[in-house]
């Protein structure tokens, strides 16, 4: 074993590999920070460059792009409320209010530290628990997935904002929007009204951009004075005390990310929101979440980046891609003549070790390139709003168009932008809508697949995993609703005593 | 004086919540009785209700209706809690004309790129939006309004390999 590790080190420590990781992370951060261009797109764009590279160099380039892209999504989420990736939509809940208070630097730095720590822990999990966790993930069938999604959906309670009922309505509307398109089982039309563009459902990138970025643009032209108070030369930093107090949240979020990342298809968005919900639930001041709590940024970024290393677990251990990005990386492995899975650990163990070493190093590279990116990207906050927002709108249009190269997606973005603005005006949180929309297809797919496997409802109670998720779903919903009701009662009491 | 004002705000806020809940309730009824039957094709071979393509839309619509009803009762019987937006800044004195111009420019973004091309459309809209926002310096208007769209176009078209519509300039490229 030691001999294999030594050979792995030897294979890894080349200038080409170090350059590949650095270039990959930098490219990923830049592309991830542009609304509409996702980490998936960045990895797909980088794939052709790997054809003529060594297997280790090529894979590390893609892994670097992926990790950089996941962090990059948070930069614009914090600065201009335009999340670069769906998971970064959770980061903006507290990151953007912090930027509005002139603490963009603090939010960005906390996002970076949380990302790097979570990424490091996720990589460690990949190295030490790959086979163990992959075995657990294999035990997940449709009923187990269904309960996992139900549990994830309980987070909607925590991110409902000022009104629980409005938050729940928002989540249900998101789920309802996700049903648009061809039916998964019968192939019949649902709410497409013979529109060919809707057959594949509503694209999530235009929806995401419209829902979060466009309302800010509209609001700027409606309000008397722009509410965003720009503080030039923002010098706010994360203090050691703040980092220490957020450490538990980061570690907890990282492990939530690792567990969710291991399960194919569950995704970083669910992990980010689950981590955020847990942080809020255990916080001594849950009422400050959504208003610029630095722990909220740490929690969502830890959940988001905890997924990054863990999604490689089912890929490397079982040969199963957990999401689109790992499917592209699987393609890169195959182009290099390698087949991920148990046999790879026997036949190409030195390559595996070299990749593991590179992946561990990518966390450090992410810290360095992230710091550099923050220094330059943070200047975006200094641009006057009347100049910045037309540019943001331009990125929204270009980014939406880039998804499928069709103007229909620009229309979708504008439509959801108007919806997002109305939701903002009526004080209805948009985050539950996104959560419902992202998890909707998984929820319905696993519900119906369970019924296809067995027509008996007892299939939903078939395994201990089902029962564990049933119990934590009920507990999470109960605790969440009770807390929200208490908070509402406290607000009403305060109002009554104020008016008395 | 301030008590009277906060009472008026509370009444207005309560009325807004009642209207929101009533409209949502009405929308869920329209959805259940008109939109789902018209928009979802259910095959005759469906054996079990949960397997029907219309099952989840009906369940979700019922959920929306239920929570709208709870919200309506809450708005009528419980004390109103002011939302964050209610206490925020007012609207711009010329907000109506500004919104109309914004809507027009958004429609230009939607309808003109196929004819004018994406870069030219982006230039026109960006310059117009900056001018509406209060920018009067020609150097900034033209420099940012032309320079940034060109750079963004170059990035998307040549780095990200996105085939953007070029409209009038299709033959030139």
UniProtKB/TrEMBL annotation, chain A:
Keyword terms of this UniProt record: Membrane, Transmembrane, Transmembrane helix
Domain DUF112: 18-434
Coiled-coil annotated spans: none
Pfam families: TctA
Transmembrane segments: 12-38, 58-80, 111-139, 201-222, 254-276, 312-338, 350-374, 386-403, 410-439, 459-481
Endpoints of the signal sequence: none
Record-given protein name: C4-dicarboxylate ABC transporter permease
Source species: Roseovarius atlanticus
Lineage, opening ranks: Bacteria, Pseudomonadati, Pseudomonadota, Alphaproteobacteria, Rhodobacterales
TrEMBL record, chain B:
Ranges that cross the membrane: 18-38, 58-83, 95-112, 118-134, 139-160
Pfam families in the cross-refs: TctB
Residue intervals of the DUF1468 domain: 19-165
Keywords linked to the UniProt accession: Membrane, Transmembrane, Transmembrane helix
Protein name: DUF1468 domain-containing protein
Native source species: Roseovarius atlanticus
């Amino acid at each position: 074993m030691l001999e294999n590790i030594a050979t792995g080190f030897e294979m890894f420590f080349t200038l080409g590999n170090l350059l590949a990781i650095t270039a990959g992370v930098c490219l990923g951060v830049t592309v991830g920070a542009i609304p509409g261009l996702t980490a998936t797109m960045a990895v797909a764009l980088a794939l052709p460059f790997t054809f003529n590279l060594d297997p280790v160099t090529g894979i590390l380039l893609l892994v670097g792009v992926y990790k950089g892209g996941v962090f990059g999504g948070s930069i614009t989420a914090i600065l201009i409320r335009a999340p670069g990736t769906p998971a970064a939509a959770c980061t903006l809940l507290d990151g953007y209010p912090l930027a509005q208070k002139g603490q963009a630097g603090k939010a960005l730095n906390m996002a970076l530290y949380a990302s790097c720590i979570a990424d490091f822990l996720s990589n460690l999990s990949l190295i030490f628990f790959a086979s163990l966790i992959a075995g657990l993930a294999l035990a997940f069938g449709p009923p187990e997935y269904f309960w996992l999604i139900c549990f994830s959906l309980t987070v909607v309670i925590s991110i409902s904002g000022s009104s629980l009922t409005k938050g729940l309505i928002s989540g249900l509307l998101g789920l309802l929007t996700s049903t648009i398109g061809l039916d998964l089982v019968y192939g019949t039309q649902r709410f497409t009204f013979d529109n060919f563009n809707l057959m594949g459902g509503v694209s999530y990138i235009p929806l995401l951009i419209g829902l979060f970025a466009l309302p800010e643009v509209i609001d700027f032209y409606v309000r008397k004075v722009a509410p965003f108070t720009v503080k030039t030369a923002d010098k706010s930093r994360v203090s050691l005390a703040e980092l220490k107090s957020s450490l538990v949240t980061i570690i907890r979020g990282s492990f939530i990310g690792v567990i969710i990342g291991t399960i194919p298809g569950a995704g970083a968005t669910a992990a980010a929101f689950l981590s955020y919900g847990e942080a809020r639930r255990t916080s001594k001041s849950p009422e400050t979440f959504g208003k610029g709590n630095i722990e909220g940024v740490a929690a969502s970024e830890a959940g988001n980046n905890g997924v990054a290393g863990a999604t490689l677990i089912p890929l490397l251990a079982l040969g199963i891609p957990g999401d689109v990005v790992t499917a592209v990386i699987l393609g890169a492995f195959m182009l290099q003549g390698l087949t991920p899975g148990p046999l790879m650990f026997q036949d190409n163990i030195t390559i595996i070790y070299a990749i593991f070493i590179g992946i561990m190093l990518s966390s450090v590279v992410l810290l360095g390139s992230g710091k550099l990116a923050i220094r330059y990207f943070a200047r975006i906050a200094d641009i006057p709003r009347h100049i910045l927002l037309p540019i943001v709108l331009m990125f929204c249009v270009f980014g939406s168009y880039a998804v499928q190269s069709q103007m229909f997606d620009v229309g979708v973005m504008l439509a959801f932008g108007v919806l997002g603005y109305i939701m903002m005006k009526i004080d209805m949180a948009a985050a539950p809508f996104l959560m419902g929309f992202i998890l909707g297809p998984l929820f319905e797919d696993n519900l119906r697949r369970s019924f296809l496997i067995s027509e008996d409802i007892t299939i939903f109670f078939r395994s201990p995993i089902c029962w564990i998720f049933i119990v934590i779903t009920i507990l999470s919903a109960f605790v969440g609703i009770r807390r929200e009701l208490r908070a509402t009662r406290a607000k009403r009491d305060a109002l009554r005593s104020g008016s008395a | 004086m301030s008590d009277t004002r906060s009472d008026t705000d509370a009444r207005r806020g309560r009325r807004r919540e009642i209207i929101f809940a009533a409209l949502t309730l009405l929308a869920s009824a329209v959805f259940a009785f008109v939109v789902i039957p018209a928009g979802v094709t259910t095959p005759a071979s469906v054996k079990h209700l949960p397997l029907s393509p219309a099952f989840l839309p009906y369940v979700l619509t019922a959920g929306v209706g239920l929570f709208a009803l709870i919200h309506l009762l809450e708005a009528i019987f419980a004390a109103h809690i002011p939302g964050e937006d209610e206490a925020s800044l007012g609207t711009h004195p010329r907000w109506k004309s500004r919104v109309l111009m914004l809507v027009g420019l958004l429609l230009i973004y939607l309808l003109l790129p196929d004819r004018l091309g994406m870069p030219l459309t982006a230039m026109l809209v960006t310059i117009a939006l900056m001018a509406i926002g209060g920018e009067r310096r020609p150097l900034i208007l033209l420099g940012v309004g032309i320079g940034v769209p060109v750079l963004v176009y170059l990035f998307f078209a040549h780095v990200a390999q996105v085939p953007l519509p070029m409209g009038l300039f299709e033959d030139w490229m």
